[in-house]
Amino acid sequence: MDSEDDFNSSQMSEDDFAQDSDVEIDEGKDAESARSSSCDASDTWTVDSDFDDDVGFESQDKDIKPNKHAYEVDFNVFEPSQIQASQHKQIAEVSSILVQPPEATAILLRHMRWNKERLIDQYMEKPEETLESAGLGQDAATNPPKITKIQGFCCDICCEDGPELDTFAMRCGHRFCVDCYRQYLYTKIKDEGEAARIRCPGDKCNRVVDSKSLDLLVGDDLHDRYQELLTRTYVDDKEKLRWCPAPNCVYAVECAVKDRELPRVVPTVHCDCGHYFCFGCSLNDHQPAPCSLVKRWLKKCEDDSETANWISANTKECPKCHSTIEKNGGCNHMTCRKCRNEFCWMCMGLWSEHGTSWYNCNRFEEKSGSEARDAQAKSRQSLERYLHYYNRYANHEQSAKLDKDIYLKTEKKMQQLQSSTGMSWIEVQYLDTASHALQQCRQTLKWTYAFAYYLARNNLTEIFEDNQKDLEMAVENLSEMFEKPIDQLQGLKVDMMDKTAYCNKRRIILLNDTAENLKQGNWEFNVALS
Amino acid sequence: MAALPKRIVKETERLSKEPVPGISAVPHDDNLRYFDVTIDGPSQSPYEGGLFRLELFLPDDYPMTPPKVRFLTKIYHPNIDRLGRICLDVLKSNWSPALQIRTILLSIQALLGAPNPDDPLANDVAQAWKEDQSKAIETAKQWTAQHAARPTA
């Protein structure tokens, strides 16, 4: 074991080195082996770059990067200002092609859900209809609307009049006083969360309020909210973009994996906020199980696990009709209420064969009894099988929670260790690294059980289970070490670092193996992957 | 309560000065945003001859948000449910602050004349309407006679 540990740890440190060199100081994350090489893109790209092009460039790159693992996918993380910049860039580009002002182009693009090609095609073919259906008039390009005072005007919304009243109308001519217009936009944006398709307040008017008109009418706070909502629609409209689901996270992740590829790949992405999630379904990282299995498994657990546990613990099945029976009192002489079969609760054999030895079943060797137990065993097998996987899944979930508590205590531990042993802050970082590794491996292990539940039995499955066992043992070893009192931790440093590296390595091996086979469609599942 | 906005004052004035034929809307003395409404069943509809009572309330942010309207008289109609709630686009997504109480009530009257079982609120009624229209119309007439009879004065 020692030699293998050493081997692995030296491998790891090479990995670490390679990553350290390209990930600029990234508080402690750099040592994490799972940090994908594809993160590099997010560290190096600039605000002006159009991310559509970036991906194309990257996928054309040599397909085998030495330090990219099979279970990793390419992705980029963007912050809101970058998403906004990218919208502006696309708007400017299309604007010059269509010869429409930017604010009108923006409305057209949103109307077409940011599909540039389709917009250009459609616009070239029938410009009037395209403008009309997007909520723009045909005169969008000429003299922009202004705030003006008009003699004898009476606002249809507030019924105010007077020569000093500021009024506004878009080119549709529905004129209202500026206060009402502003109030209207405020209600739409703040209360209704509407931005991309705010229509003219006039009755049955389809004209969409453009950003230029909006700028004339509203202040900065509303304008910011408006932009935020527009960005939200943009990300929702783009298939390749997805918001990070972590609470309060403002980043969006771009990944080229499409819905139809999901049975073949589990696209886990790592947001800059630190959250790992699946690009396919937005759930927490669930490698190695594909999205459809995860969905199925979660549903099953929601419906079944508690019930199944109870059934398994408290009931038996009638040996004749297989009805589930709970014995709620009385003797062992059972009469099935459904099929009237009489049997012994202890041995499940026919009661008629019990003779006079009632209430004292000692007839284990009887034929009918053992047959009935066989049948029972078979029907219970599927339940037991499920519970086997479920219990392990739930166990890792629980342990991961506990490990998280430990993680929260780690910082304190690290400080204690520093003061009691005189080690420096950098020297105690191994604890943090170990706790990270522990949580990540538990997360993976948890999902290996859901994955395994749906696997058909064959050689591949056995290899998978061996990998799973190795990872499990490695994790338990490390977890145990973590619980040791402070005074022992210093002496365990080297051992702990080795174990951490080993855990990470085992995790990578397992994930690589499953991802490769998933990609090639080698796994045999006992359900259909949808 | 804050002073009544000019818009509501004007609308109320106009409703009493130039009433819409077949429609009346009178505000309560103690709450000028709450109206008692009656609508005559349109002619050549199953609701003909009936007098339908409704309540109408103007929320604080009216006219930015639509008025709240509800039937008080029981009515057999695919777009009006048992509680009298009305499924009408201008009361929801197609509301425009340029619309008024009178235009909304006219839309409701028009809805009585043209039931739309394809966009139902009362599912059972809509179902009956689609399966056997003449029978549904008959039921609607019966309900009108039973619940929406004019007070004989």
Structure characterization notes:
The complex is a heterodimer of chains A (about 525) and B (about 150). Chain A is mainly alpha-helical. Chain A folds into three domains: about 1-135 and about 225-285, no CATH class; about 145-210; about 390-520, Four Helix Bundle (Hemerythrin (Met), subunit A), CATH 1.20.120. Helix content of chain A is about 55%, strand content about 5%. Chain A has helices spanning about 1-20, 40-45, 50-60, 80-100, 100-110, 115-125, 125-135, 180-190, 210-215, 220-235, 290-315, 365-420, 430-455, 460-480, 485-490, 495-520; strands at about 75-80, 150, 165-170, 175, 240-245, 250-255, 270, 275-280, 315, 325, 335, 340-345. A three-stranded antiparallel beta sheet of chain A has the order 1-6-5. Chain A has a three-stranded antiparallel beta sheet with strand order 2-3-4. A two-stranded antiparallel sheet of chain A has the order 7-8. In chain A, strand 3 and strand 4 form a beta hairpin. Mean pLDDT of chain A is about 80; it is low at about 1-60. Chain B is α+β, with helices and mostly antiparallel strands. Chain B has a single domain, classed as Ubiquitin Conjugating Enzyme (Roll). Chain B has helices at about 5-15, 100-115, 125-130, 135-145; strands at about 25, 35-40, 50-55, 70. Chain B has a four-stranded antiparallel beta sheet. The longest helix of chain B has 15 residues, at about 135-145. Chain B starts with 5 loop residues before the first helix and ends in a 6-residue tail after the last helix. At the A-B interface, helix 8 of A face helix 1 of B. Chain A: It comes from Massarina eburnea CBS 473.64. Chain A: It catalyses: [E2 ubiquitin-conjugating enzyme]-S-ubiquitinyl-L-cysteine + [acceptor protein]-L-lysine = [E2 ubiquitin-conjugating enzyme]-L-cysteine + [acceptor protein]-N(6)-ubiquitinyl-L-lysine. Chain A: This is RBR-type E3 ubiquitin transferase. Chain A: Its EC number is 2.3.2.31. Chain A: GO terms for molecular function: ubiquitin protein ligase activity; zinc ion binding. Chain B: Keywords: ATP-binding, Nucleotide-binding, Transferase, Ubl conjugation pathway.
